[in-house]
Amino acid sequence: MASTSRPLLRALPRISHTVCAIRPSLITSTRATPRVICSQQRFSSDGSSTPAGKSADAPFLGTTRLPEFSLKDKVVLVSGGARGLGLTQAEALLEAGAIVYALDVLQEPSPGFHNIASRAEKELGTSLHYRQVDVRDVPNLNKTVSEIADKHGRLDGLIAAAGIQQETPALEYSAEDANRMFAVNITGVFMTAQAVAKQMIKFGNGGSIALIASMSGTIANRGLICPAYNASKAGVIQLGRNLASEWGEYNIRVNTISPGYIVTKMVENLFVEFPERQTEWPKQNMLGRLSAPKEYRGAGVFLISDASSFMTGSDLRIDGGHSSW
Ligand SMILES: NC(=O)c1ccc[n+]([C@@H]2O[C@H](COP(=O)([O-])OP(=O)(O)OC[C@H]3O[C@@H](n4cnc5c(N)ncnc54)[C@H](O)[C@@H]3O)[C@@H](O)[C@H]2O)c1
């Protein structure tokens, strides 16, 4: 049925609303008339508003827009943060305001690390630090984590991204190689989370932990033979649920992120050895392409910040629909 009011609505002029408020503190003025503070807001058709004089795409979001995503003054660790996905996560956490420590087995972080550290100091008003740690060396891991927490009097978050990959058919896998895989990808992640949780409990502020698992923790990859890696990532997903169930009482949340294929240095090297994968892998998901590390930035900040305050024991699978097919 046609609405008769439509032509009338179309004829109305666009209205710029003026929002006025009386500041109570100013009513105590000796003058009889209270000062009225008015600010002009433009309301757009989608209901959003922009304070007068400010451009909608102003670079600084301020402290009142989506404050639950802010990590200002929080101290967050990223294992495997020297390069790749871990370093990209570290930069996102810095942009959200956190002080970030990257822990990694490499003696020196990748060259890109130093650019991000300099950007943190000059542009973001925060800092990025590096500590060389092998996640299998539990005494050094605990020492490093407790020193960082003591220095700041708090520890608020962890993204555990340290991990290794090995492509070997199951019939040829040695026990030594399998144990190495599990030592880094499961026990290493477990001990890192434990070291961090101990400090979170000591300082009493709770915190949030995100473990980097993989879609390979749920599915077997077609054309990528890595049985121990995939078992290790299934272990990370199950570890996350169990840590969440034990540490909820301390207000520590634990979740996992399960990425699909990400084009990092590791994957680029594989494409040199197996060029057909570059065309085959993208066909295996619903978006027909592989992902970039930056496509996980939002997930990391979401999980570490209060934006996910009621989320724990969950797996966030981000794989272009690969494992939904
Ligand atoms: N690249 C992908 O397609 C993909 C997909 C899903 C999940 N992941 C996971 O994402 C995480 C990051 O992977 P990436 O692709 O950035 O690879 P990467 O090799 O660039 O990063 C892994 C980092 O972990 C560090 N590391 C390895 N062993 C360590 C140890 N014993 N102690 C401390 N640090 C150690 C490495 O030095 C490296 O900096 C890994 O857990 C990986 O399994 C990657």
UniProtKB/TrEMBL annotation:
Pfam families: adh_short_C2. The keyword Signal does not apply. Belongs to the short-chain dehydrogenases/reductases (SDR) family. The keyword Oxidoreductase applies. This is Short chain dehydrogenase. Keywords: NADP, Oxidoreductase. It comes from Delitschia confertaspora ATCC 74209. GO terms for molecular function: oxidoreductase activity, acting on NAD(P)H, oxygen as acceptor; oxidoreductase activity, acting on the CH-OH group of donors, NAD or NADP as acceptor. InterPro entries: NAD(P)-bd_dom_sf, Sc_DH/Rdtase_CS, SDR_fam.
